[in-house]
């Protein structure tokens, strides 16, 4: 018998003959938050009506709002005379006891195993992938929110279901608790069940306060920031498709979006964008994207705009199509086209679940992304919940004025969303503008091809850092190649060529799949700007964006080991001047359209030219790298305890910084480095901790503006669970933030993880740390690395980045994090080191410090 709880519960699930959904009923309070929508979708499709009702009601307790709980439970009334014991299984209690002891990652894997059993029809059956990007899709975030702070003792049991609570006499769901008396306004009674679960007494007889049609006063008090999505018929765009209507094969429809009061035919659970206190000039852009061979969109009719008004309403600023071409019924409201964005779509000829993606942007920053799924049938027979939506990327669930001011102060150039499609491929969704017409496109890349690109990029970084393409191994005999501060132009240029070869393969790989020409993207990206790489925590799609190289060349024409590569003469001249005390590299003409190498490439592309790329010299220009040219940010979706990514880190007077360090004597640069950070700026107050207890005690009581880890790191044996080694050998893992109750409500710190000699702590693994810091504890962002780093690089990059971020001399003002990271990369490049490209800012590029006045 396995002794490990993880193994024991896996054996239990694989050997039991119990209905896995009945097991889930016992486990709903342990369910990771990121799997909730998948669980609800599976419950709604259960064949046992009694089990379906109990399970839906239990899962509804986990929904965030009262309205969502009422809406869901009223659709699934309890059967008269049934009790929870009718459907619970004997194995459920033992599974609950074991799962409560597991780590967050193990808990996710166990529930995933359980869901696979539901989908495949047998507890021990092989996994059959559910339809991707619909509720239950497998590209859900891996880091989860736990409903408790730690494991339980061996003999301790979690609270079981209260049989009395889950009994029904045939009406609507009834609570054990007492109904509230009518309030002073004459509202009807409501029933509350533990954990805030609520339901009206009967779906057939809703209470007065729960009915949206009950009175004008009630209607005006309804929230006006609900994001309504749905479909409408092609002959009358105001004739909305009802929730039970499947879309018909081969037909045309309109997909619509409205932000306002909840619409009767809106699909899916209620989602909102908090619009309070917004400036009237705020503009939201909505773009829809297709999935291959699914709901088809019309090119040029797939982008619309909304504008927030003085009274808090949201009106259409620009329809995706000409208003005069939109058909309306004779009784359509006069202002219908002012309230609803309408996108023409076409339905395939085959019956299936078909999808599209709907993205909402503010100043080219992706704020929310929905996957919309439609049940497509050849007959009009009603289907329960025919269409659904899933909110799978959330930068912010509110758009407060402070968020919009930060986003629009310097609008982003491009947002690039990368997501796993669930079928072995990945989609790259582009949206941006440089002030001209919007650029929108998408590319679909095979997963193996993308994995190959990423592997090549990491190998190139390894080669540049320690001279070997394999992962770092301290016993390999290799050493850090930039240990000395000697400037070696030949070495630098060769290493840039290795990185550019990998970066060009990534770029050409996804550009080759675009529906428009690469020239359109090149035009948009020609000049420096802010970029958002939107991550959904998909561990197979952390693109090394800084290394992407978009200057065309033919690297396979060169024998790299024996070729003397050249720097672009324009950049080489700027580098010499910067090293002599002249203008910084940010001012180089290569970033302003004056690059000699780009002119050579343009000549080759001239239709009248006889030259090819093979005629170009072995030349590299650093301005071709996205990490040197642009201000990058890779903000993660927020699906944990925190729902808003702060655009600024507020402070009054002094800036508080905490350095959490390893005391390993091999860290010879640690103390001088920390000393230099202490003297960066008089207003920067740095305190130092050297152990687990010390840092936990501090973070539970105080919130620094900057949290800095200068330490070792690694992966726990036989797992993929990361840790940072602080003090002598204390291990600090992402689970500590949850278990110790570390949470920040403001200010929200920037976390910098400088993990030296951090074996195998790659971005995919690091995401556990990033998500815990951001989603659970409320950090504003995290800076991490692509590969293992070494002390000289760690110390220098951190000092340069922090100096720019806090505005330490010689910098006259604090910079946004994207600009600070770019500046640090270029400063290392000026010194002859290209490895600033290995640093990743998991934050919005415009994140900055903001000093508020003392009271």
Describe this structure in words.
This protein has 22 helices and 31 strands. The chain has 855 residues and is of the alpha/beta class. Mean pLDDT is 82; it is low at 122-219.
Beta content: 15-25%
Number of beta strands: 31
Task: Count helical runs.
Answer: 22
Task: Extract low-pLDDT stretches.
Answer: 122-219
In one word, what is the shape? globular
Largest sheet: 8 strands, mixed
Average pLDDT works out at: 82
Cα Rg: 28 Å
SSE class: alpha/beta
Distance between the termini: 64 Å
Kindly state the percentage of residues in helix.
Answer: 25-40%
Topology:
Layout: H1 5-15, H2 20-27, H3 36-44, H4 49-60, H5 66-73, H6 90-99, H7 104-120, E1 191-193, E2 197-199, H8 216-221, E3 226-233, E4 236-240, E5 247-248, E6 252-260, E7 283-290, E8 296-297, E9 303-308, E10 314-318, H9 336-339, E11 341-346, E12 352-362, E13 365-377, E14 387-394, H10 401-409, E15 414-420, E16 425-432, E17 439-446, H11 447-466, H12 489-511, H13 518-524, E18 530-535, E19 566-567, H14 569-579, H15 596-605, E20 619-620, H16 626-629, E21 631-633, E22 648-651, E23 655-661, H17 670-678, E24 684-689, H18 692-701, E25 706-715, E26 722-726, E27 730-732, H19 734-739, E28 750-755, H20 763-776, E29 781-785, H21 791-806, H22 817-830, E30 839-842, E31 848-851
Parallel strand pairs: 5-13, 15-18, 18-21, 19-20, 22-31, 23-24, 23-25, 25-28, 28-29
Antiparallel strand pairs: 1-2, 3-4, 3-6, 6-11, 7-9, 7-12, 8-11, 9-10, 12-13, 13-14, 15-16, 16-17, 25-26, 26-27, 29-30
Helix pairs in contact: 1-6, 1-7, 2-4, 2-6, 3-4, 4-5, 11-12, 17-21, 21-22
